[in-house]
Each structure stands twice: as structure tokens, then as C-alpha cells.
Design goal:
About 35% of the residues lie in helices and about 20% in strands. With about 475 residues, it is of the alpha+beta class. Bound molecules: flavin-adenine dinucleotide (FAD).
């Protein structure tokens, strides 16, 4: 890597002085994302650059190749897995200036955007044009399209419309060589030959820099309503979801919380959670009024066949508001409330449906072993894309990040959870990215497919410029 001063002057030539900084106070902003992983080492980049176009990005990538300088692509840094962190320092490439909505095609139901556009901006632009942009994570006010596509992001509307990767019709990507490729287009299924798009979805910036995306939008539903249902345990709740599926019911939202999480989410309103509820699902339904009414009736009926009881309306309203973070409901986010003392971190895993209970029990046992059984936050489950059957299960323990020992203990806790997931036939979920959190497990998890992935990396990024040594690529 060259002297930072020489790198800086070359970057200034490409993007202008206003968009390059090597000031420590600016660089520190990028030393940590929203995960605890950032505390495990010093990830401060040497320099931060904010390109405004694909051409500028190409020139930066070529410069990085010429000088053997790693580049870490950065959307909004809301990642919960350490995946944008500058493990080998070098350049942070902040994409937020690439934030133009390029086109909204209401006839063909697509929106074309630059990668630095936030989900909230895409949503509002689409809404003004009379269509519905459905990718809505809880971080939608700040997280970017590039970040969502790179992390396989999940959405509150995902049970009906699918998740980030389901929305993609076309991509423009700058490879690690500086070459620009475009895949797909505005027309649905316009991918010839192999679906190369999937290489870059969920790749967490390791295979290419997404610069533009063509995404699906939908006719907006006339209305949406919610109901929440409490169950005696996870198994009953899962059985109810299968029954709802067999009934032909297609909810828009399916979020599951254990009792502790529910109480935590509801504490602002002090809405009581009935004593016998150990697990609960929030269901949302959208469409014309008669469809919505029927859908919710079917959900309530199917759930009651599996021990489900409808929870108070106030609780449902509160729950929906706390996951549907918008400009109007920002102050209702439980994340904002929970960050006074402890920082919640995440373990996400895909375990077979029949193992959810076993995995949950293991988590509860481990919490006792680690002395954390009194801490709030617990188990969350989200539905599979386009269907009411859950697929990923999340566990969270709020950690006092001021205590080094506690952080180390948390890393050990996560290790044990990932080991258990693999042991019971599960794996690692990419829904929030793998990064430094579960990336180190990728090699073991992928087996000999890891060699294929390394081979692909060698072709698209031969000098290992992109997100070097992150997401398990140091192995
Ligand atoms: C309060 C809160 C709530 C959250 N809720 C959700 C949720 O409901 N659903 C969900 O899915 N996630 C959620 N997340 C996690 C996070 O917001 C998502 O993973 C999000 O998609 C990350 O986007 P970002 O723009 O912040 O990307 P960053 O954090 O900046 O980067 C994430 C990864 O993407 C790569 N990357 C970014 N831009 C590009 C690009 N243009 N090309 C190639 N690679 C790129 C980075 O290198 C990195 O590997 C939440 C986070 C917070 C803090």
C-alpha cells in the first residue's frame, strides 16, 4: 500500500477534494458498524472516499489494484455483522453520494436506482408515482439499496412480496478488476443463461460493487390490517404457520417473538402480555377490504386450532409500529430505547423447522450458563420469503460493551450457538450478512463448495481488493 498522502492526492484527482478525507475524526465514524464485531479490533480505515458515479468508482478500483490497497464498500454502516469494516484498513468507499432515483416505470412495475439510495427514499419516490416499493427493513430510514442487496436483507412485507433478493430485475456491478458488467434488465426474467445476478446478491461487497439496480415495484394494496396471536410455545406457533399455509392464506407480514422480546417491545405502553403466552406471531394482511377480512379470520381460526389466542389490539398496534419504522414512527423504535446501557447483538441461523424448539432450548440453557438469563431480548423468527412458514431464527443478548470481558464472553456464546446450529443440521443465515460475525464459519459450513467460491473470487477480484479478509475470505 502506498503512503496515505500519495493515495489521497490520486483520489482527490478522481472525485475532488471535498469527497476525500484522511482526518482521524472522519475515519473513526467508519471504524464500527452496528455490530459488536467492530470492538474486536481496530478497523479504522486509512482514508474515506465518496464517489458520485460509476466512472469514478471504476477509476478508484483501478487505483486500488495498481497500489494493492483494499477497498471496503460502505452503504450506511447499519450492518449487524461487521461486514463493511476495514479489516486491513485501506480505503472505505462510501456509496451515499450515488443516490439518484433514475427511473420509475409504473407501466412495467420497476424502479431503477443508484446503489446509495436508501430504502425510505425508494419507498417515497415509488409512492409518489403510485406504486409500492416493498423492501422495508427496520433500518429503512438509513440503510441503502446496495447494502440490502449485499446482505440478503429481510423486509416487514417479505412474507408476501419476498425479500431484497426477490426484488432484483437487473444490476450494474463494478468488479474487483474495475470492469463494469450489467446483468438482467427491466423485463421480468430477462436473464439469459445462468443467473449470474445471484453471485452478487448477499456477497457483502466481496465480489463486486453494486452501482445500480433495477428493482420490482407493485400496485399498492388498498389497505392492510394486523393481528397478533399468542401461543403456549414455539412448536404450537410453527404448527399454526403451516396450517395457515395449507389454508391458502398469504399474509404480508409474519414476525415471531418470544415472550421476553414481546415484553421488551411493549414496555413503553405497558401492554400486558397474557401469562400463558410463551411465543407470539404478528400477522399482517393487505389487499381489498373483503380479502383482508377473510385472511385475518382464517389466520385466527387456524391459529386457534393450535392453541393460539388473539392478543389485545393495543399490543398488535404497538408491535406493528415498533417494527414498521418510518419517518413518522421513528421514535417508536425499540432499538432506540434499548440502547441506553446495553447493545443487542444478533445470532441468526437457519435451522430445520423441527429443530426450532431444540435450538431455542439450547439458547436458554446457554444463557443460564453464561449468567445472562435475566437479560431482555430473546428469540425472533421471520417468515420465509413469499410464504407464512418461518425460516430463520434470531437470538439476541444485550451486551454491556464497556466491559471487555463481557464482549469476549459474547463472542464465545456466538461460537457455541453457530456450532450447535451446524450440529443439528442447520446453518448460518445471511439475512443480516455474515461478515465478521458468522463469516469465519463459512468455510466449514460450505465444505468443498468453499473452493468454488474462492475460485470465483479469484476471477472477479484477482488482487483481493474488495473487502479483503472479511467474511471468512482470510481462510
Ligand atoms: C436498527 C436496525 C434494524 C435493522 N433491521 C433490519 C431488518 O429488518 N432487515 C434487515 O435485513 N436488516 C436489518 N438491519 C441490518 C442492516 O440494516 C441491513 O443489513 C442493511 O441492509 C445494511 O445496509 P447498509 O446500507 O447500512 O449497508 P452497510 O452496513 O454499509 O454494508 C453492509 C454490507 O454491504 C456491502 N455493501 C454496501 N453497499 C454495497 C454496494 N453498493 N455494493 C456492494 N456491496 C455493498 C458492505 O461492504 C457490507 O459488506 C437492521 C439494522 C439496524 C441497525
Amino acid at each position: 500500500m502506498p503512503e496515505v498522502s500519495s493515495l489521497k492526492s490520486q483520489l482527490v484527482e478522481i472525485v475532488g477534494a471535498k469527497y476525500v478525507t484522511d482526518e482521524l475524526c472522519d475515519r473513526l465514524v467508519y471504524a464500527k458498524d452496528y455490530s459488536i464485531e467492530g470492538l474486536s479490533s481496530d478497523y479504522t480505515p486509512d482514508i474515506v472516499v465518496k464517489p458520485g458515479s460509476t466512472d469514478e468508482i471504476v477509476r478508484i478500483v483501478k487505483l486500488a489494484n495498481d497500489t494493492d490497497t483494499p477497498i471496503y464498500t460502505w452503504g450506511a454502516g447499519t450492518s449487524m455483522s461487521g461486514n463493511p469494516l476495514a479489516v486491513e484498513h485501506g480505503i472505505v468507499l462510501d456509496m451515499k453520494r450515488t443516490n439518484r432515483i433514475l427511473d420509475i416505470d409504473t407501466a412495467n412495475l420497476s424502479i431503477s436506482v443508484e446503489a446509495g439510495v436508501t430504502m425510505d427514499e425508494a419507498y417515497h419516490a415509488a409512492r409518489e408515482a403510485g406504486v409500492f416499493f416493498t423492501h422495508h427493513p427496520e433500518s429503512s430510514l438509513s440503510s441503502t439499496i446496495g447494502g440490502a442487496l449485499s446482505c440478503m436483507g429481510i423486509s416487514i412485507y417479505g412474507a408476501k412480496y419476498g425479500y431484497a433478493f426477490d426484488q432484483v430485475l437487473g444490476l450494474e456491478v463494478v468488479l474487483g478488476t474495475g470492469e463494469v458488467i450489467t446483468i438482467g434488465g427491466e423485463a421480468y426474467l430477462s436473464i439469459a443463461s445462468h443467473n449470474l445476478m445471484n453471485l452478487f446478491l448477499g456477497a457483502e461487497g466481496t465480489l463486486g460493487i453494486i452501482t445500480k439496480a433495477i428493482l420490482k415495484v407493485y400496485p399498492p394494496p388498498a389497505m392492510r390490517r394486523h393481528v397478533s396471536i399468542g401461543f403456549p410455545d414455539v412448536q404450537h406457533a410453527m404448527a399454526a404457520c403451516k396450517r395457515i399455509h395449507s389454508a391458502g392464506c398469504w399474509p404480508e407480514t409474519v414476525y415471531g417473538f418470544d415472550r421476553k422480546s414481546l415484553i421488551q417491545y411493549m414496555e413503553r405502553e405497558s401492554t400486558p402480555v397474557p401469562d400463558d403466552v410463551r411465543f407470539a406471531f404478528l400477522f399482517g394482511y393487505s389487499g381489498d377490504p373483503d380479502i383482508v377480512e377473510t385472511g385475518l379470520d382464517v389466520i385466527i381460526r387456524c391459529a386457534s386450532e393450535h392453541g393460539g389466542q388473539q392478543l389485545p389490539t393495543a399490543l398488535t398496534k404497538m408491535w406493528w409500529e415498533s417494527v414498521n419504522i418510518t419517518r413518522e414512527t421513528f421514535d417508536k423504535s425499540n432499538f432506540a430505547l434499548s440502547h441506553t446501557e446495553y447493545e443487542p447483538d444478533l445470532i441468526d441461523a437457519c435451522v430445520p423447522l423441527s429443530k426450532f424448539q431444540e435450538f431455542t432450548e439450547y439458547y436458554e440453557k446457554l444463557k443460564v450458563e453464561f449468567g445472562w438469563d435475566d437479560r431482555n431480548f430473546g428469540t425472533f423468527i421471520v417468515a420465509a420469503p413469499r410464504g407464512p412458514i418461518p425460516f430463520a431464527i434470531y437470538f439476541s443478548v444485550p451486551i454491556d460493551t464497556r466491559l471487555g470481558d463481557e464482549v469476549d464472553k459474547w463472542f464465545e456464546f456466538k461460537k457455541r450457538m453457530y456450532q450447535k446450529s451446524i450440529e443439528i443440521g442447520g446453518g448460518l443465515s445471511e439475512a443480516n450478512g455474515m461478515g465478521l460475525r458468522s463469516g469465519p464459519w463459512a468455510k466449514e459450513y460450505l465444505g468443498n463448495a468453499w473452493r468454488l467460491l474462492k475460485g470465483i473470487k479469484g476471477v472477479v477480484d484477482p488482487n483481493d481488493i474488495l473487502n479483503r479478509n472479511n467474511r471468512g475470505f482470510d481462510q
